[in-house]
Amino acid sequence: EPEVTQTPSHQVTQMGQEVILRCVPISNHLYFYWYRQILGQKVEFLVSFYNNEISEKSEIFDDQFSVERPDGSNFTLKIRSTKLEDSAMYFCASSERGGSGANVLTFGAGSRLTVL
Amino acid sequence: GQHIDQPTEMTATEGAIVQINCTYQTSGFNGLFWYQQHAGEAPTFLSYNVLDGLEEKGRFSSFLSRSKGYSYLLLKELQMKDSASYLCAVMDSNYQLIWGAGTKLIIKP
After folding, report:
1. pLDDT per residue over A81-101, tens digit each?
2. Strands (E), chain A
């Protein structure tokens, strides 16, 4: 079964450092997402991406965050200057369609970010 | 504001049936999803409801009442591996998924 792959599975970084989280969505999917989940809390939407541009972003996704699709397969989330409160599990997801209908998201296994 | 409410935690016995409720208030409605999430893992898709009624898929069923802003996930013949968090998520008028905090289901032998 096709899957979304994320790397690294766990990253530990110092506050203020830049971090790049990588994702390879399912190959025929056109819509890509980043979510985060702070330990013990709910899943929070960060950003959605379609046709090489951001389609929606949440209040969490401020200027410290950026996304990129540098080639035909990778989808990256960059945090420019990490803060302690950025410590969370970051999930990448992709879907075949974005709008109406059963827009089923397939999630990657997640990248756990720990900021010290 | 938009919100989704689910019980924080439920306990059930192996072999039994459990119903996990979800109520929602969102700006528009384009479908309701249930996801299962084992501790430390990614959410995995269980079901999707957009019309009122019951959708059955093996041991799992999901019900929706749009007029009441209400859904439930019914799990039958519970197995120990069903111990997980169950997340209710609603797609709003902007096609964004609004997530509930999840219900942690504990299965006892």
Report:
1. 999 999 999 999 999 876 666
2. 5-7, 10-13, 19-24, 31-37, 43-50, 53-57, 65-68, 75-79, 88-95, 106-107, 111-115
Kindly report the length of chain A. 116
| A61 chain-B contacts, CB cut-off 8 A | none
- Pairwise CA distance, residues A7 & A51, whole Å: 23
pLDDT tens by residue, B57-101? 899 999 999 999 999 999 999 999 999 999 999 988 877 888 999
CB contact, 8 Å: A110 with chain B?
yes
CA triplet A38, A41, A45: central angle to 5 degrees?
A: 70
Q: Which chain B residue has its CA at the smallest distance from A108's CA? A: B42
Q: Which residues of A touch B51 (CB under 8 A)?
A: none
For A66, which DSSP code?
E
